[in-house]
Amino acid sequence: MKLLNEKSKQGRSSFNVGLLDIQTNIPDDLQRTELNLPELPEVEVVRHYTNLSNSNFGVDNGLYPLGSCTMKYNPKINEIAANISQFNLHPLSHHNRGTLEIIYQLQQYLCEITGMHAFSTQPAAGAHGELTGIMIMKAWFEKRGEQRTKVIIPDSCHGTNPASVSLCRFEPVHVKSSSSGGVDLEDLRQKMSRDVVGIMITNPNTLGIFDENIQEITQTIHDYGGLCYLDGANMNPMLGVVKPGDFGIDIMHLNLHKTFSTPHGGGGPGSGPVGVVKDLEPFLPNPRISMKKEKLEFEQSEDSIGRVHSFYGNFGILLRAYSYIRSIGASGLRNIAENAVLNANYMKEKLKKHYHLPYDRICQHELVIDDSLMPNGVTTNDIAKRLMDFGFHPPTIYFPLIVKGAMLIEPTETETKENLDAFVDAMKAIKEEAENEPEKLTKAPLNASIGRLDIVRAARKPKLTWFT
Amino acid sequence: MDYTPNTDEDRESMLREIGVQGIMDLFKDIPENLIQKSALRIPDQLSEFELIRELEKISIKNKKPLSFLGGGNYNHHIPSTVNAIISRGEFSTSYTPYQPEISQGTLQAIFEYQSMICELTGMDVSNASMYDGATSLAEAMILASKIKGKKQVLVSQALNPFYREVLETYARASEIKIIKIDIVDGLTSDFETEGSSAIIVQNPNFFGLIENLEEIRKKAADILLISSTTEPLSWAMLKPFSEYDVDIVTAEGQSFGNPMNFGGPGLGIIATKQAYLRQIPGRLAGETVDIHGNRGFALTLCTREQHIRREKATSNICTNEGLCALAAAVYLATYGRNLGRLAQLNNQLAVYFTCKLSQIEGVDLVFDKPFFNEFVIRIRKDLLSKLSDIEIGISLENYYPNLEGCYLVCCTEMTSKEDIDRVIDEITQ
Amino acid sequence: MENPTDRKYTKEHEWIKIDGNIATVGITDFAQDQLTDVVFVELPEVGKQIEQNGNLCVVESVKSVSDIFSPVSGEIVEVNKALENSPALINNDPFESGWIVKLKVRNEIESAQLMTPEEYNKFLTEIE
Description:
Helix content of chain C: 10-25%
Strand content of chain A: 5-15%
Mean pLDDT of chain A: 97
Structural class of chain A: alpha/beta
Number of domains of chain A: 2
Oligomer: heterotrimer
Shape of chain A: globular
Number of helices of chain C: 5
Order of helices and strands of chain C: EEEHEEEEEHHEHH
CATH superfamily of chain C: RNA polymerase II/Efflux pump adaptor protein, barrel-sandwich hybrid domain
Helix content of chain A: 25-40%
Largest interface: A-B, 195 and 192 residues
Radius of gyration of chain A: 25 Å
Strand order of the largest sheet of chain C: 1-2-3-9-8-5
Low-confidence stretches of chain A: none
Low-confidence stretches of chain C: none
Distance between the termini of chain C: 16 Å
Largest sheet of chain A: 7 strands, mixed
Number of strands of chain A: 12
CATH superfamily of the largest domain in chain A: Type I PLP-dependent aspartate aminotransferase-like (Major domain)
Radius of gyration of chain C: 13 Å
Number of helices of chain A: 13
Mean pLDDT of chain C: 94
CATH class of the largest domain in chain A: Alpha Beta
Order of helices and strands of chain A: HHHHEHEHEHEHEEEEEHEHEEHHH
Largest sheet of chain C: 6 strands, antiparallel
Structural class of chain C: alpha+beta
CATH architecture of chain C: Beta Barrel
Number of domains of chain C: 1
């Protein structure tokens, strides 16, 4: 499809702006002489993006079982809620009682759901929440006058974990996974010392497994005075079933754009609120919203790590998550967990008849299969591309790194049994194609708006704008 | 509401397929003592109409008087095209475009966004977005200290005070030292570059004034020059940063088609020179071809990112503000060159307001220098009290003790001449 | 592709070819195959001193980043500039035009301890 600048023609812009008869105060030598933005009539702008949207695939188009991303249905009512004009307020307006009430209530709900003592809704995304959490750990030990340097991270972690740790000048130390998929306790004990800041753990982990030793893991860390951070990306199957605060977690983030149904927006915006136990509350980002004598106000804490966002976080996302929690209520939250786990296990049982299941056990919200049984050199990447032809978004591929050729599948609770069956049927058909017509796979997708893209070329000769 | 579609019958048959008796058998890995025995203390579910009623009840506790607040978040008109496009589920409900063959819409839109940001700033490369203005600036600070190998930066005090707080937070974590550069008459004053990797200035600065970037560049000859902008509409009127050889441009892009939303989500903009391409944080969309030779787009140079380089990544960022960048792209495409006229109108309204205010005794324009659409006034208390139902501006004395009784006032195209006249009337009455 | 017999090898899959006191270093065919298509080579600066097993450079494919270690200590006297525009040379011709750097060798004993072609071939069959 043509680019905006290729469709542009001088004088075509129809979005007119009337000027006043007032001289500018800006001297000529500070002003620009040219502004080469594309010029299209409004109808062509709308068509351009409408046509672009047609070559995109979202949850609204079909099953999107992208593991660790929780691509559940994003209720449309959330969008209506987010567009209530009275909430579109300037962040420094003092007439903000309604807005503060939403944030405060949401903080309370998140505390109740996770068993944490206090939440800050400032972080704008999961990785931002991680960074905030590690900053809190750093500030905690600084305050105690302890110099610790190492953060334990299981080898099945999300890539953001070690990246967040090194931004805070700590050293990530990886612990192995055991043959059953949890943390290898022996390896963990060997790596423990008084130099350990804490652990960053994802539970259920990226294999979809709830670590049955979680209490021993957190106890081990606490025995050495360390702190336990939970990457809450996989909170979905725990809603109303188990609270991280009960298994020894001291700090965690939630991804509102995963667990609480706010749309991913093609990569954001998200929201990554951070919750902590009571001892760590003073370290949360400034300012916090708290209740003083039945009045909501901003509060500053001396021990705080400081501000992590231009204002107060992604309020537009908080409002959507608030709406979601209110609309489904307590019973609805538990329903999510149960159905997410049911859907994943159902899919796992059906898929394992055709694909290799490296960890054959009960899973939580997601499951991992791999390409080790595929004939004719067909790879995970080929399977992913072919799934597009069947009308599905592929799962997360080649992750977690500890499974070679991994496909991480998270169906979510909002899919019907029929959708799950159709996906399994497609996977079965692909397996048969791999045996009989492997070229169909290696050339896939065959029906998408564009063929398989040359990503090597994109990286060797980067062309990142229409100018170069 | 309930968004889980499985019927009891479905559930029974699925449990049979799995080979377990009941749902709780699927949670057997969770130690028994951890399983919740009682329901969460969260209100019961609501229907859509009950929910809307509830939300409206809360929303009217907010009030929206006539307002001249700016300072990092701006009340601009959002063209009707923007919501029509960004509310399309194909865009809004998709994930990061890791699978390019079914994400061409998002990818081409990002590529075009990157191009338009480069046009506005004059820089060579823009990424696909960061969280907001403050965090993209913090990432630029970290980037500069990696490039220059010096863990010290200079920060102008004419930078938005919230941004300075965010820089302090990141600097503490990354063990970077911040040296504060004073303000003289509203503009960044002299500085020594020794031992520093970069100087950070805001343009237009927090007081709305246009900084002397040419002078600053000269003084910063041996270090990097990083700029921050909170009102990028000014770019449509001002010389691009490339003309001052700025090294890294960061900004809050909320002005481009995104609502105020109490300050978030915003749109973190970061753009830089070709030389720093491989150090830039976040995602990049690049052009390539498919197996048939057709043009297409894909995420590229991903080895910089956390999912591949992990602890050695240029940043930990994963989720960014994709839909806000799309809104900005639709916004820029809708206005096209008329964005220049919109910028002029904003400036004209602010100039008009200062002309009117300067005729009133008891109101002073604090800095007599070129500004874009924000300016600082000092107003006598008795006059201020007449404006109790108007948000005249951001009170500056909390952030700058010597600016007692001063307010940062902002005009956008949403301010009408009548609004300004109303303020003048109320003060002079 | 056969591993040439005129050079030595490391367990990290680098090769080193000595000519007088100058050593040419690259990566083996096995290494390039594991990496897949090389898209970028972050070359070191000429004149840099490097220790044995020290970080020589970084080679990137689309989906991975690999550190290349120096088989011996020495000073970098030349880098393969052709890789800047044609990183694919490492894939297409790893043992000749895909060389990465030339070093002035500081300690000859170090290279003597590296694997012979026969030892490296055996090593490859062991790890596969």
